[in-house]
Amino acid sequence: MFILLLLSTIASLSSATPLHILQSLSQYQKSTGPEVCITLHCPLEMGACVINSDCRVTLECMAGCSGRPDESQCQFECEMTLGNGNEPFEKLLQCMAANDCFPEVPADGLCLAAPEDTVQEVTSIEDVAGDWWVVKGVNCGQDDVWRGGYDWYPCQHERYLR
Questions:
Q1: DSSP state, 148?
Q2: What whole-number distance in Å separates Cα of residue 22 and Cα of residue 15?
Q3: Exposed / middle / buried, residue 88 (Cβ in 10 Å: 0-12, 13-18, 19+)
Q4: ∠ at Cα 39 (38, 42), nearest 5°?
Q5: Are 109 and 149 in contact (CB under 8 A)?
Q6: Residues 6 or more apart in contact with residue 84 via CB below 8 angstroms
Q7: Is there a contact between 40 and 33 (Cβ–Cβ < 8 Å)?
Q8: How many other CB atoms sit within 10 Å of the CB of residue 95?
Q9: pTM to 2 decimals?
Q10: Which residues of 34-64 are buried (b: 16+ CB within 10 A; e: fewer)?
Q11: Per-residue pLDDT in tens (0 to 9) along the chain, 162 residues
Q12: Beta-carbon contacts of residue 130 (< 8 Å; ≥ 6 apart)
């Protein structure tokens, strides 16, 4: 964790770094894990998260999920139980989303819905912005490894921001 904080601090000095070096680093990040992307694009947010004890505990929980067969579920549980409502954690996630720092993850179970079960009126991201309630999910509890999916928690309130 200290190394990541140190790299983030160094990257925050990047205003003095020539553009071609930053472009090379940006290309490199696409072939590595999210750590490089976070270091390049979100050093201040990562530093604020590490300094905040609740945010740091969330990151440590998520790091403890690494390599598990239920890694995505485990990290989601860390986010929802520890990171939910933590401003530094949310700002870090927003920065990561804005800079495409989230790694690709394997599918989290089968989707038990078909295209005809979806909301057909949603045709753009603007249609989704706002508050939504999830009353029932369709990809939960399919095997011993994946006990529940993203929509596993009952009565979720979701807020999608643009």
A1: -
A2: 10
A3: buried
A4: 55
A5: yes
A6: none
A7: no
A8: 19
A9: 0.60
A10: ebbbbbbbbbebbbbbbebeebbebbebbee
A11: 545 444 454 455 444 455 555 555 555 555 567 888 999 999 999 999 999 999 999 999 999 998 888 787 788 889 988 998 999 999 999 999 999 998 776 666 666 677 787 778 888 878 888 888 776 666 555 666 555 555 666 667 777 776
A12: 159, 160
Torsions phi, psi of 95, nearest 5? -65, -45
Structure-token pair, residue 42: 């979100």
Stretch (H or E) spanning 133: strand 130-134
User: At 84, which amino acid appears?
Assistant: N
Neighbours of 82 (CB within 10 A): 19
